[in-house]
Amino acid sequence: MGKGANRGEGATECEAPMPTFSWEEIQKHNLPTDKWLVVDRKVYNITKWSRRHPGGHRVIGHYAGEDATYGKKKLKYLPYNHQHEYFFLVGPPLLIPLYFQYQIIMSMIVHKHWVDLAWAISYYARFFVTYIPFYGVLGAILFLNFIRFLESHWFVWVTQMNHIVMDIDREPYRDWFSTQLAATCNVEQSFFNDWFSGHLNFQIEHHLFPTMPRHNFHKVAPLVRSLCAKHGIPYQEKPLLRALQDIIRSLKKSGELWLDAYLHK
């Protein structure tokens, strides 16, 4: 049915004729350790590459043993080139009140986490019993989602200011310690920064000692800093305001790269 392209994920022999596979044979390669997919009638072995897929191995692995050509086609329901300009007006407002609430509960049911489900139900029950007398049903629902909205923004900004701004490529030969120092950075210590970030402003130490109580990170930070100085490893630390600004710069850079790649592919 389809011609083989990169069957062994190595260099291809241009002179050799491309092998041909039937759909029956292709459909057998839909395992976590053996993934083939078809794009434009060409067969690709993505077993190893799927681990590097930007969207995650589960997304690309979903098409293992199938024809993934349709994924390249554009749906015509909306002007595709302009969707990014107005989706943020529709998507995020629906995520918290609808999708996240539903997804959390359904995940507990599917994975049979009955204790967690019981605690979640008791939380919602206690919340509405407490606030409905003050705000009514609609007001309590709006208040719940407003709290979740603030909480989600705090969590994303606090965690991503140490990660998303780091400029790191795939480096298979870098040692573990150096990788942690290259993949994250710290935010300067202060009473407010410690409180605001829950001590996650010491993100380097958090990566190196993930089981250490967070309020002890400031004690081990000088030791890590001296070890880095001894071996010439950069120890990156920045003010809180600059860390937050770097998130905007990083997202802007990523968006420009994506837009350039999309428009000129």
Description:
The protein is of the alpha/beta class. It has helices at 23-27, 57-61, 83-110, 114-160, 176-183, 191-197, 203-208, 217-231, 240-263; strands at residues 2-5, 20-21, 30-31, 34-39, 42-45, 186-187, 237-238. It folds into three domains: 2-72, Flavocytochrome B2, Chain A, domain 1; 80-160, no CATH class; 176-249, no CATH class. It is 55% helix and 8% strand. The protein has a five-stranded mixed beta sheet. Strands 6-7 form a two-stranded parallel ribbon. A hairpin with a 2-residue loop joins strand 4 and strand 5 (42-45). The radius of gyration is 24 Å and the shape is globular. The relative contact order is 0.06. The model is unreliable at 7-13 (pLDDT under 50).
Mean pLDDT: 82
Radius of gyration: 24 Å
Distance between the termini: 27 Å
Main β sheet profile: 5 strands, mixed
Quickly count the domains: 3
Residue ranges: pLDDT <50 for 5 or more in a row? 7-13
Quantity of strands, as a count: 7
Output the strand order for the largest sheet.
2-1-5-4-3
Pfam family, one: FA_desaturase
GO molecular function, one term: acyl-CoA 6-desaturase activity
GO cellular component, one term: endoplasmic reticulum membrane
Domain Cytochrome b5 heme-binding: 18-69
